[in-house]
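=== RUN LOG ===
request id: a7f3
mode: sequence -> structure
chains: 1
length: 253
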Amino acid sequence: MDLINNTLGDDYVRDEILNGIIKNKAVAYVGPAPNIQGMSMGNHIDSHDIVMRVGDPPVGFMGQTGKEIDYGSRTDILVHSYNSHDRHHLGQDLEWVKERKYLLQPMVRSSETPLQETWFNDLGVPVHNIPDHHIKSDEHWNQGKPGYLYDYLGSLPNTGFVGILALLNYDIKHLYITGISFYNMGGWDKGGNCYFDEWYDQLKNKSYGLNESSLHKPENDIKHFRDILSVKKHRDKIVLDEYLMKYFGDLYE
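=== RESULT ===
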């Protein structure tokens, strides 16, 4: 299967509600990585037609302020795993979640599907889950269907990366990617991870730790992202921030 040109497989069915929101739009895809602190890119992020935030948002959620100068202030679409610990955390500010235009879930649901469906229905916000078989192979989860990305990469791609792969199937004008560090380019250390140092002992990470496990291998995501960027039709849609250009900018030369 060609997962370079068809980034989720040739049987991926995109959500036309999502496409209607982002069609011909300039989209900012913003992760919470601390590498953009001090860069004062918030106004640039907010200047995009649509702002998508990945993971626990550093602004807006639970009244968090003070980081807008670097991360922007808007969150039109929230990209998250929405697993049990995520739902518990997001439940602390459900009114904020309910005000989003759309929710994107680019990660496996597995046995949590009924609970997640109930949670999403109660929210009343349009949501799109990338079906499990595009991501992770597991006979119990997928009745023996292949898990395209897991089988191809040899590891489970992280949620933020799957979101990027998904968006390349949509009619966006361009995708500006920032606040995504591939977990400090595979370093996994707390300071360079996708979590803020000051949050580490305060939020869910205190109980669940960093998203480091044998399932996730950022080096595989990094290599695959280089392969994706080597394809002109993808590269023409993707604009990288200064941090990512240090690692992938040669592909734009």
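=== NOTES ===
The chain has one domain: 16-244.
The two ends are 28 Å apart (CA to CA).
=== END ===
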